[in-house]
């Protein structure tokens, strides 16, 4: 069953096309959308649905592609996605994305550092998704775990495509006694863990 309405699908396809172009046309790295793969979006949506994630936190909104997948769950179960983006240009694009898709009422986009934002949740988040600058992952790990309720899910993107950059994060996350998880070989490699 396809849970993505046609209006949202069109917006997603536009972002997918832009992301593909960004990767080949010389767009500087910092300005690229760097969106997750569509199958990772489907995976995120499935995890969020299975866990009935009503309080979802995302660090690294980008153009809003992954947020759309999560917002579809929020719409379905009466939840909300709070997403953090530090780049004003990407935040502006994401706002436009959410409005065009008709999902803005399920999304709280905050311009600012996700580290600080995670601290606000303190054991209330059902799912935390990290897809930000790779240098920030290790710094985000502790606040992300603390933001989760017991049984909540932590998902982090790019563990295999950026293995060397994320080695510290991977090792620390695997060793943390508050988590049980593994890297799923999907898309860029998704670290998925449950808060014990």
Characterise the protein shown here.
The chain is an alpha/beta fold. It has 7 helices and 7 strands, in the order H-H-E-H-E-H-E-H-E-H-E-H-E-E. It has helices at 6-22, 38-50, 65-77, 88-101, 114-119, 137-147, 167-175; strands spanning 55-59, 80-85, 107-111, 125-130, 148-156, 179-184, 190-195. It has a 7-stranded mixed sheet with strand order 3-2-1-4-5-7-6, sandwiched between helices. Helix 6 links the parallel strand 4 and strand 5. Helix 6 runs parallel beside helix 7. The longest helix is centred in the N-terminal third of the chain and has 17 residues, at 6-22. It is globular and about 40 Å long. 43% of the residues are buried. The mean pLDDT is 93.
List keywords for this structure.
seven-stranded mixed beta sheet, 7 strands, 196 residues, single chain, alpha/beta
- Helix content range: 40-55%
* Average of the residue pLDDT scores: 93
Q: Estimate the strand proportion.
A: 15-25%
Radius of gyration: 15 Å
Count the beta strands: 7
Number of helices: 7
For the termini, the CA-CA separation is 32 Å
The SS-based structural class is alpha/beta
Poorly predicted segments: none
- Could you say which overall geometry the principal axes of the C-alpha atoms support? globular
What's the SSE pattern?
Answer: HHEHEHEHEHEHEE
Major beta-sheet overview = 7 strands, mixed
Strand order, biggest sheet?
Answer: 3-2-1-4-5-7-6
């Amino acid at each position: 069953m396809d849970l993505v309405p046609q209006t949202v699908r069109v917006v997603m396809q536009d972002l997918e096309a832009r992301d593909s172009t960004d990767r080949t046309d010389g767009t500087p790295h910092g300005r690229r959308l760097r969106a997750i793969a569509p199958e990772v979006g489907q995976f995120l949506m499935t995890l969020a649905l299975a866990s009935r994630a009503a309080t979802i936190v995302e660090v690294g909104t980008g153009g809003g592609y992954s947020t759309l997948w999560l917002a579809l769950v929020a719409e379905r179960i009466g939840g909300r996605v709070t997403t953090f983006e530090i780049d004003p240009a990407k935040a502006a694009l994401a706002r436009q994305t959410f409005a065009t898709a008709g999902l803005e009422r399920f999304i709280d986009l905050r311009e600012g550092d996700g580290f600080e934002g995670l601290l606000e949740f303190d054991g209330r988040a059902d799912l935390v998704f990290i897809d930000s600058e790779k240098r920030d992952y290790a710094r985000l790990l502790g606040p992300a775990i603390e933001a989760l309720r017991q049984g909540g899910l932590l998902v982090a993107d790019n563990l295999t495509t950026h293995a060397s950059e994320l080695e510290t994060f991977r090792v620390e996350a695997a060793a943390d006694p508050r988590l049980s998880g593994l890297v799923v070989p999907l898309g860029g490699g998704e670290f998925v863990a449950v808060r014990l």
